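Recall that a protein's primary structure is simply its ordered list of amino acids. Everything else, from secondary elements to tertiary packing, is in principle encoded there. The following example makes that idea concrete.
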Amino acid sequence: MLRRAKAREGSHLHLPMHSFRAGADSGEGGGVRNSELGRTGAVRLLWSEADNLRERVAEADALYGFFSFDTALSQRASHGHLRTSPAARAALIRLCAATNTRGAVLSARKVETLQRRLRLHRLAYVGVHGTDVQACGLRMVTEPDLERAETAVQKLRRACSRVPALQTAGVVVEDRIWCLALHVRHAEPQVRVAATEEFGKLVSAEGLFLHHADDSIEAVPEGASMWRAVLGLLAGMRGALPVYVGAGEADEEAFAVLNRRSSITVHVGPPPRTGTNARWQVADTGEVIRLIHWLADARRRA
């Protein structure tokens, strides 16, 4: 196993730099996003094209499946925390046991959190927006300057501790080493606005970039992105057909990049009003589990 967050030696694939911007469209790849179902060029229901896609999956020399922990494998419980279904773990076990097939789970959370939840050693884990990676076969990737990122995040954390708006009830600042996350889900509306504004000012002062997730605002270093880590993992499994499943801005960037490789990109849930870069859609996390079993069955018949 190679822990990329701590291993910096070896060759690197030099990829174009990309910065997170709040409200930006896709990362590398750009273009107009798919939006409404049924329109020409729109995102399509995956199961309506399952027969054709099954042939691609079965005939591929290898397959690498990438699944967002936050939006594809987990559901938000009534108390607000993400809950992972045991069925998701069972499905991933089947997928990783198939011939020439690997799986990876991606999240803004730390790798140790993902490993504690899933307890699967054969998976690759990508955490903290691609700065924390543990996987077999990781090759030739660029990564942000992690030492510099950690220093900037620690300075930001100390700065946050001195701002009253960030010490209010319902506001939580989470230190993820290479990323600082501001959680305001349980704060009053006016508190959310004030905390978000103050956090944004501090993030800019430290040269970090804002990333907006469904339930948090995160400060990340330049060069941190899921798609960079995904390309690094794919470089270690040449010729693999990528399948990427998720929802959210970090996943949209990965969709845009992987579409150039004729990948199978799948959005979970209805497309947002701004559209999606994904080419296919499934309804919810229950259908994601069905999709993983479907992939495993197709690979076993290969």
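Residues 189-205 form the longest helix (17 residues). The chain has two domains: 2-143+223-300, 146-220.
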